[in-house]
Amino acid sequence: MKVNGIKFITPEEIAAMSPVDLEVTKTSFGGKTGDVKREMYNIEVKFDRLTSRKLPISNDDFALLHFYSERKYLADQFTVQAKARIVETQWPEKDGRPAHSSYLLQVYATDELKWEEDITNKQFVNVYLKGIKNGDLKDYPPVVRIPGSQEKEVIQEEPKEDNPSENQD
After folding, report:
1. pLDDT tens, 60-82?
2. Strand 77-91 to strand 100-108: parallel, antiparallel, or no bridges (unpaired)?
3. Less packed terminus of the chain by CB within 10 Å, N or C?
């Protein structure tokens, strides 16, 4: 099955995505005594009450989401509807490595507002798969994708843990 990246998503693929709530937040830091004021913008993709993923966004994305929500006043936190899916790429056994999967979160709010994040090594995948297994996320099954023969697998090595006993003098 061919699954497009979020930049090249088709209307049929959008229609097949399940609705999610995007909780949009703006957080301000500093600025009380004339110091530099910093602002962070995030969206939290809420699949259900237990399963959600927070993504950083730009201030422009925040502004567009605010206009999309059709709010008359500026709010630091609000919720809008969007569509989301998890794409599971199933890699076959190769060169002694066992078969495994990689995961991609795709979120679509409007033509201008769409995000994609590789969530393969994130704890969110365990929560998501547990929700699927328990039947809590039956509206959000992963889109299973088999990679093409020309596709190169990106292998992420696990970081090696330093042994503190080796670093002592």
Report:
1. 999 999 998 888 888 889 999 99
2. antiparallel
3. C
